[in-house]
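Supplementary Note 3. Input sequence used for the single-chain structure prediction.
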Amino acid sequence: MATNEKILLSELAAVFSGVYVPTVPDGEIVYLQTKDCVDGIRADAAMRTFSCTKTDKNLLQKGDVLFTAKGNSFFCVMYDEEIKAVASTSFFVIRLKSVKVLPEYLCWYLRQPSVEVYFKTYQAGSTTPLIHKSVLENLDIPVIPAGQQRLIVKISRLAQKEKELQESIINRKQAILQQLLMDSIK
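The predicted structure, written as discrete structure tokens, is reproduced below.
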């Protein structure tokens, strides 16, 4: 069995911090914070900011991976929007510079339990834990053929969809049972 190549994230991607900018209700640029990205990107609910030198040079690009740098849970999302947006300082922005790894696969890999253990091992701070950029950059990424990467991402999405459907079925069954029980005592 062949061993997959592992490459440091720093060799595959540029990693940079999000920016801090003041928010305004009528800004033309979306300012993404962690609350806007928990289950995918919710740009419609995000705060806004005005265009300036800082925002213009830090605009997100399709395929950028946003990784939470602060807090107790680590998650990431892939930016795949058509609108102008910047990430807040709660994120590291990972911009792939190599075609060896697909952004969707990288995002999937960063969510794996073994990777979370790696981050918890190296997190700093006690009040608000954080991950240093160097810890993220020194993470080994398994590089497999692009077809396998796509398959892993597809299977992962299908498994998530299955989980959501099962939870929905359980909730509906419980509601029906509860209603039947309540009807029996009327």
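The first helix runs from residue 9 to 12. The beta strands are 5-8, 13-17, 29-32, 47-49, 65-68, 76-78, 85-87, 91-96, 140-143.
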